[in-house]
Amino acid sequence: MTDPRAAARPTQAVILAGGQGSRLRPYTDDRPKPMVEIPGTGTPIIGHQLAWLAEEGVTDVVVSCGHLADVLKDWLDRADLPVRVTTVVETEPLGRGGGLKYAAAHLPHPDRPWYATNGDIWTRFSLRDMADFHTERDAVATLALARPRIPWGAVQTDGFGHVTDFIEAPPTTYEINAGVYVFSAGFAELLPERGDHERTTFPRLARELKLAGFPIPQGAYWRAIDTAKDLTEAAKELSALR
To answer: What's the confidence (pLDDT) of residue 2?
Structure first.
């Protein structure tokens, strides 16, 4: 039997891939951040993202380029990709909100919902479940929520101040924006021409109870690749998963 929710799930997505990745130097001296390879995989971050999107039913992706755009476009042209890819280039910085709006204008189906992700996120969870969550809450926008591990060991104490345990790199108690989104068809019209949607569009939708937060399921893989240490940790985690 066909799942009636399937028709509302996006088949198109935007990847914001224009960041300079200054904290990933020297890896980003000659390539944009999404083109940095996850050690041991032979594939850049964006390659993992495109494979994941395809597995989740996406057929068309708009990649928004900026820093060293030609390097990324050349790889996309040569690679055997599992989805149809359109590249757009910001000729001047538009901010994350403006960049999303510019990229969304090139989606093949502007009257349908869409996914979006930042170009430095490496993750695996069910986008289909996230899309269903979005639809069930009648949201205009839904963001994935992660609980990343803090980079230090934590100390646990009792009510008398006695140390009772040491916990290595525990998950934070706070949920953060995981950089993966589901947007309804009309969302792009609410984005600024320039600037950050997290300071304009998202607060407005939150006040209207039209912004939802989807917790990434416990045990699902998620990591933002911001520094050389993140690359090292991602390689270790990949090895452990095999």
So the answer is: 59
Q: What is the pLDDT of residues 152-195, one digit of tens each?
A: 788 889 888 888 888 887 777 788 889 999 999 989 999 988 87
Task: State the Cα torsion 127-237-21-145 to the nearest 10°.
Answer: 40
User: What is d(CA 223, CA 120) in angstroms, rounded to the nearest whole number?
Assistant: 9
- Hey, is 79 helix, strand or coil? coil
By C-alpha distance, which of 115, 105, 126 is closest to 193?
Answer: 105
Which two three-digit tokens encode residue 34?
């999404």
Residue 180: CB atoms within 10 Å: 25
Q: Which of 61, 41, 44 is nearest to 53 (CA)?
A: 61
Closest by Cα among 194, 189, 15 to 103: 15
- Asked whether the beta carbons of 165 and 202 are under 8 A apart, the reply is no
The secondary structure of residue 37, as a DSSP letter, is: B
pLDDT at 112 over 80: yes
Q: What percent of the residues of the chain are helix, what percent strand, and what percent coil, each to the nearest 5? A: 30, 25, 40
* Residues 241, 145: Cα–Cα separation, whole Å: 22
Give the Cβ contact number of residue 98 at 10 Å: 19
Amino acid at 102: Y
Q: Which alpha helices (DSSP H) does the chain contain, by range?
A: 45-55, 69-78, 95-104, 127-136, 201-207, 228-241
DSSP 186: G
Q: How far apart are CA 125 and CA 220, in angstroms?
A: 6
